[in-house]
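Agenda item 2: adenosine monophosphate complex prediction
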Amino acid sequence: MLVLVINSGSSSLKYQLRDVGEADGGREPEPAVLAEGLIERIGFDGGPADHAEALGQVDAELHRVLGDRTVDAVGHRVVHGGERFSEPVLVNNEITRAIERLNPLAPLHNPANVLGLRAIASKWPEMPQVAVFDTAYHRTIPEHAWRYAVPNWLYTHHGIRRYGFHGTSHQYVAGRAAELLGIAPEEFDGVVLHLGNGVSATAVQGGESIDTSMGFTPLEGLVMGTRSGDLDPSILVFLARQGHGADEIDDLLNRESGLKALAGSNDMRTVVEAAESGDRRAQVALDVASYRLAKYIGGYHVAVGGAKAIVFTAGIGENSAAFRARVAARLGALGVLLDEGLNAVRSKEPRTVSSPDSAIQLLVVPTDEERAIAEATAAVVRAAVPR
Ligand code: AMP
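Presented output:
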């Protein structure tokens, strides 16, 4: 099955065409990437006028690659599924409107996702479309972990609760980690660390998300490239009283904080190099980021009733041996032992980087959100349209 994976932003459209193969009951081979690309500057000078025009460019590229073959289904990355969506769904007008109603919860992302859904529906009205939500995997989080200790109307009127994000990545990585350990996905108890430009940790018990560090928005939790993560909420009140407006505070915490604020760069390679050449700000940044991560790992180890594995993924988790080593060094109390030789090996394969006597295994498992979306899309379409 040929699945076009779409990640639609407000002024960009990222796509990847994958051949998911046919269902055979067993594990499928890795779906081949047949085409991929990024169209930017939608609605700006020199770029396509709108998402429909951007899709025209994608279509032309697909024709070039596919010749007479056609796309069988489109899978969309949708950031917010609210409380309604706990799994990928086949899209119709009602579903698109339901996603649109969630716009206030993800004002930068969901409106763009809706534009993508509508652009496909008007270009290819018969095309099966599937929405795959970043929040869906976290719908199993119990109330004691999703509820904030604030008056209930904040929840009932505004939907203020923990939702969690990066769910597609956490679920995919937890599944691959279980495979690496030789157990079924439902047997996996562990902590998954998605360390990219955005950073989140998820507590996984029995293969399900039972807690995650991002909350009502992706700002909560760990130190990220440009986001602060956790801080005393009174800081916002203080800043507001000092005359800083909502947009300014939003910008400060989402785009001017994190590694960028601490070390002057949001690129982990730059920060590690600076720290190694003696830059004190960079050293402090790595200390803050790894310390905060270790605290979450300790907490989630307790939450899952004893993690069997701690799994590193995404740009930093997969590639930065130096950062993994700094995190592992803070986990001595859990009996975690890193194998420095294994940790230094660069690879695209899922692998173990702890020593055999480590009390908890340390794994590196590359994420692949497009693959997860393509496979989820194919599964939903096959179930809806049995052949
Ligand atoms: P992502 O959002 O998953 O693309 O991850 C982006 C982050 O990964 C950035 O902070 C990059 O600096 C970091 N990253 C990518 N490659 C490496 C590498 N080889 N070593 C250290 N960090 C890396």
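Discussion summary: The longest strand covers residues 32-39.
Owner for follow-up: CH.
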